[in-house]
Design brief:
Largest sheet: 7 strands, parallel
Number of strands: 11
Structural class: alpha/beta
Low-confidence stretches: none
Oligomer: single chain
Shape: globular
């Protein structure tokens, strides 16, 4: 029975561990907290994944390393490079296939549907971090030191997913309060379900040779505008008509002055001020991954949010 190692115990790491375990695969999920799903085939390990020596030990006998770990959003510039270096070093040493979970920051601003092969052209600090991580991994792949692929997602939907929408819209809508969201509310936007992330990661790891040495997009669960998405969430959750307004620049600046995570939002505003649509047709055709049903995802989000507040 093959062993798979997952770093990171957030929503995507847990979903990937559950998917693999439920299909009969052995999983070792590694995080600082040592958290993870309870399943007889899941081993939960508390470790610092920036320690390449320790991570190499944990990769012994593993077929695939899936990285779903990330530093705090306001610490990417300082903490992502050493994390990425440790993961890549450990995968090379252990001879383990390496599947990275990424996003679209490295592309910079774009027009029209984005395809995964579009060149990296980052214009932000976080975008440059992501592009550099990929270029280093791709260089190792092309040198024959490790097999690498990257699965790229847009903004997350799903229970417990860390995303601006889940932070600034979902709980307020369910409480019947006005939500302020720092985006153009009427542009098309691709949304990624965390369960679809897990299915794409696993499909890529088991895919044909053409999977490796390139990036793939997670099929979007919806390309709805924020306003359309929120209206649908209200219908599915059986709440009153949503009150959703755009958060202005001054209000966002005030939040940024008080919160270092919110301070990181401004440089990524270009993704929310114009159409941001991903073309994942290759993923669907080659890897056979189809997106989940939007209403099922929204229902899952609403149920989880209500349970978290005892509703």
């Amino acid at each position: 029975m093959p062993l798979h190692v997952i770093t990171g115990a957030g929503a995507t790491g847990v979903a990937t561990a559950q998917l693999l375990a439920e299909s009969g695969e052995r999983v070792r999920i590694v995080s600082r907290s040592g958290r993870g799903p309870e399943h007889p085939l899941v081993e939960r390990v508390a470790a610092d994944v920036t320690d390449a020596d320790r991570l190499t030990e944990l990769l012994s006998g593993a077929r695939t390393l899936y990285n779903c770990a990330a530093p705090a959003y306001d610490r990417w510039r300082e903490e992502f490079p050493p994390l990425a270096d440790a993961l890549l070093t450990a995968a090379e040493r252990a001879g383990t296939d390496y599947v990275m979970l990424g996003n679209i920051y490295g592309y910079g601003p774009f027009e029209g549907p984005l395809r995964p092969e579009q060149p990296m052209a980052p214009t932000t600090g976080k975008g440059r971090v992501r592009a550099d991580m990929w270029h280093r991994a791709l260089a190792a792949h092309e040198a024959g030191r490790v097999r690498v692929t990257e699965i790229r997602a847009s903004d997350y939907l799903g229970p417990h997913a860390f995303s601006l929408y889940n932070l600034m819209v979902t709980p307020y809508l369910l409480a019947g309060e006005e939500a302020l969201y720092p985006a153009d509310l009427d542009v098309a936007h691709s949304w990624t379900y965390t369960g679809d992330v897990a299915r794409t990661l696993v499909a890529a790891a088991a895919g044909p040779d053409e999977v490796w040495g390139r990036a793939w997009f997670v099929p979007s669960v919806s390309d709805a505008s924020a306003r359309e998405l929120t209206a649908r969430l209200a219908e599915v959750a059986n709440t009153p008509a949503p009150r959703l307004e755009r958060m202005g620049a001054d209000a966002l600046a005030q939040l940024a002055a008080q919160d270092s995570v919110m301070a990181e939002i401004e440089e990524m505003q270009y993704l929310d001020d114009r159409d941001c649509v991903l073309d994942a047709s290759e993923t669907e055709a080659v890897l056979g991954v189809k997106p989940a049903a939007l209403d099922d995802v929204l229902r899952e989000m609403a149920d989880a949010a209500r349970q978290s507040v005892g509703g």
